[in-house]
Amino acid sequence: MLDNTPLDSQLWDWCDNYYGQNKILCLELQDNQQVNVNLLLLACYLDSPVAGANPRCYSLSQWQSLLDVMRQWDEPLLIPFRRLRRLAKSHLAIHEYQQMLEVELMLERKAQRSILHAIQALSPEGTQTNLLSYLSLFGLSAQAVAALPLTRL
Description:
By secondary structure, the chain is mainly α. The protein has helices at 4-33, 37-47, 60-88, 94-119, 130-136, 142-147.
């Protein structure tokens, strides 16, 4: 199980860096496959060497439960706000749009804390990588996942 306190900052920093290197692909998966980027980044983090020597692989059903937790946050709050931000972009001054991006980032960080809280209740029971387990929820095959041009950290 994950220790929520130290991982919160560590995970956020790692995910922020990783997202910066894979932004286009992350947004493409979000927009075209409805992949939750926070969960995508968590899966990549858990599969990375920085997560520790003992891999924590979660099963398909465990990733589904994490996705269900995220949907409770995303559907009423984050997704509508993201749509509003995108619609408002051409009608706002740069600093106003930047403020909207900052609010969205705050919502993303709160969502990530929800993930960390939810994962506390799980004991790893997966037999494949977290990335493959998570993305298979969206119909991506092992070959498609392996072919994703994700930067490895």
